[in-house]
Specification:
binds magnesium ion, alpha/beta, binds 3-hydroxy-3-methylglutaryl-coenzyme A, 42% helix, 11 helices, eight-stranded parallel sheet, single chain
């Protein structure tokens, strides 16, 4: 068992933070390229308020216009029922709810407390269940919060257990501002593993501090085998000051492959998608 899955989040987590309003056809072209890279899951849409994140306002069109490839699940963020209903209409294959382990970021990102966010997610879980759509759960600020400082591992573990109990099939642990170091990731994971088995966890590490690969290595040692990454190292989070740059998919792929892990991804397609992503953000897509 030397397999690791990379969950591509570039078209969502990457592009949501780009200043230039990227035309829908450029997003569709990027996703269509990524569909040939060997990913099982690609996050391409976010049904949030267009006033909050204008870049994602065309999410329904992106989902409708891509060439769907068998074996690939196309995912979308859905913070509430409005978002879920739009995702269902546009035929997202899976959706995600997203909470924060810190109160400060919960308020900045969702305009409510952690407890209130879980109350708002409950009907989303129920409706997704009725529609037969898998739901992933994100936790932001698993190591540090831009507003509240270091996050206690127990807070992450509690929330991870709550999201699992609500029915999330996997919990993605976000180092939203890329400030984590392996020792802190290790402590956080030890706490979370008391609540959620490693096979239902993913690492979502931003590379702002250049430590994402080291944090992936620490997570591999704890049994985590899924990592989120964004092609071309796109993006960040509009509500987390300093959260520039998801760890680059092609970098994670090269590093994992060099360490003897198999990702099932095609290096040449990744390189092509990374070029497209970088051109898009320079306005040359
Ligand atoms: P709110 O203002 O508290 O909510 O926003 P509201 O229910 O009062 O709605 C306000 C307006 O938004 C209303 O419209 C609603 O209809 C509309 P108005 O009457 O003013 O014209 N609205 C919506 N429109 C479209 N789609 C929807 C939707 N919901 C309400 N789904 C809300 C609450 C959650 C909507 C808002 O706070 C929001 O959109 N937040 C999203 C912020 C966001 O997208 N952040 C980035 C994604 S998270 C992330 O990147 C972290 C992650 O990568 C992991 C990591 O790195 O840590 C996942
Ligand atoms: Mg993120």
């Amino acid at each position: 068992m030397n397999e690791v899955e990379i969950f591509e989040v570039g078209p969502r987590d990457g592009l949501q933070n780009e200043k230039r309003l990227i035309p829908t056809e450029e997003k569709v072209a990027l996703v269509d390229c990524l569909s040939h890279a060997g990913f099982r899951r690609i996050e391409i849409a976010s049904f949030v308020s267009p006033k909050w994140v204008p870049q994602m306002a065309d999410s329904g069109d992106v989902l409708r216009r891509i060439k769907r490839r068998d074996g690939v699940r196309y995912a979308a963020l859905t913070p509430n029922l409005i978002g879920l209903n739009a995702a269902l209409v546009a035929r997202a294959d899976e959706v995600a709810i997203f909470a924060s382990a810190s109160e400060g970021f919960s308020r900045a990102n969702l305009n409510c407390s952690i407890a209130d966010s879980l109350t708002r997610f409950a009907p989303v879980m129920q409706a997704a269940g009725q529609a037969g759509i898998p739901v992933r759960g994100y936790i932001s600020c698993v190591s540090d919060c831009p507003f509240d400082g270091p996050t206690p591992p127990a807070a992450v573990a509690r929330l991870a257990g709550q999201l699992l109990a609500m029915g999330c099939y996997e919990i993605s642990l976000g180092d939203t501002i890329g400030k984590a170091v392996p020792e802190r990731i290790d402590m956080m994971l030890r706490a979370v593993l008391q609540e959620v088995p490693a096979r239902q966890l993913a690492g979502h590490y931003h590379d702002t501090g250049g430590m994402a690969l080291a944090n992936i290595e620490a997570s591999l040692a704890q049994g985590v085998r899924v990592f989120d990454a964004a092609v071309g190292g796109l993006g960040g989070c509009p509500y987390a000051p300093g959260a520039s740059g998801n760890v680059a998919t092609e970098l994670v792929h090269e590093w994992l492959t060099g360490m003897g892990w198999r990702t099932g991804l095609n290096r040449d397609v990744l390189a092509q998608a990374a070029r497209m992503a970088k051109d898009m953000c320079r306005g040359e897509g």
